[in-house]
Amino acid sequence: MSAFDGLPPLRDVIATHDLRAKKSLGQNFLLDLNLTAKIARKAGDLSACDVLEVGPGPGGLTRGLLAEGARRVLAIEKDSRAMAALAEIAAHYPGRLEVINADALDVDVSAHLTPPIRVCANLPYNVGTELLTRWLTPPAWPPFWSSLTLMFQREVAARIVAPPGSKTYGRLAVLCSWRTEAKIVMELAPEAFTPAPKVHSSVVHLTALDAPRYPARTETLLRITATAFNQRRKMVRSSMKSLHPAIEDLLVEAGIKPTARAEEITLEQFCTLSRGLDAAR
User: Fold this and answer.
1) Which residues, at least 6 apart from 12, have a Cβ–Cβ distance to it below 8 Å?
2) pTM tops 0.85
3) Residue ranges of the chain whose pLDDT lies below 70
4) Cα separation of 61 and 38, whole Å?
């Protein structure tokens, strides 16, 4: 398609800068600027926000965010090959795009962004879940961001919004429902990407809650959910026995049947158990 912002079509950008996607970087480029603009709109009104983008690649979503009115975009890109292409976008939108050539896992973004802040990204597949977990578990809450609009493999997106009792319900669903309102807002077929991945993708929008739904220490909740779901086929009295000698009593006090399995435990019960475990220590 022809570009809507006066910049070259993404296929031309990729050819000009030799930006063939690298599997080692988890890259799959979304070249349809109509789709990247649609994803940007799913992030909400950007006109009064700074936006953090991770893994912009040739800049399709970056262009969508800027064209949709983002006050300012901070793009973190590990692949140095993309710097020239992103510099062209920065020149086209003076003062509105900052690009950092680094691994997003190593960057403290607080010095580069001014609240309110939204995160919108087609995350590289190989770091997406780790980044989401970090954003959900900062030292203090509320976090630096007000919302996350993120693209994942569809199976990961399903895990994010999974309800208790479902096969996809796990630690990620517990963390997301504890501190956010999460919903899938868009689906994309493999053919939308270059190269086409073997799986479908989904865009998830997560809005930060002012406070977690139930009180719990982050470190304890992380430990409990990791212990429970790492052995999800076992009864929790068995999978969690390493947490405390009186774990069965603590489970009962939290309203959890010791014979239950991890996927049967609600968020509220996990948080109650977390508080009980801290008190028992």
Assistant:
1) none
2) yes
3) 1-3
4) 9
Pairwise CA distance, residues 136 & 145, whole Å: 10
Closest CA to 28 of 3, 57, 52: 57
Which neighbouring-strand residues pair with 117? 50
CATH 1.10.8.100 boundaries in the chain: 218-280
Write the CATH number of the domain with boundaries 218-280: 1.10.8.100
Count of residues making up the chain: 281
Distances (CA, A) of 120 to 21, 106, 179: 20, 18, 18
Torsion angle, alpha carbons of 131, 137, 142, 144, to 10: -30
Query: pLDDT (tens digit, 9 = 90+) per residue, 43-92?
Result: 999 999 999 999 999 999 999 999 999 999 999 999 999 999 999 999 99
**pLDDT value of position 248:** 98
Angle, alpha carbons 198-200-203 (nearest 5°): 140
Q: Which residues contact residue 254 at a Cβ distance below 8 angstroms, ignoring those fewer than 6 apart? A: 269, 272, 273, 276
Rounded to whole angstroms, the Cα distance separating 67 from 75 reads 15
Q: How far apart are CA 31 and CA 190, in angstroms?
A: 12
**Helices and strands of the chain, counted as H and E runs:** 11, 9
CA distances from 93 to 27, 62, 66 (A): 25, 11, 8
* Alpha carbon distance, N-terminus to C-terminus of the chain: 62
CATH fold group of domain 10-208: Rossmann fold (3.40.50)
The string of pLDDT tens digits covering residues 158-181 is 999 999 999 999 999 999 999 999
| Main-chain dihedrals φ then ψ at residue 250, nearest 5 degrees | -65, -35
Residue 194: name the closest of 15, 71, 52, 8 by CA.
15
In the chain, which residues fall in CATH 3.40.50.150? 10-208
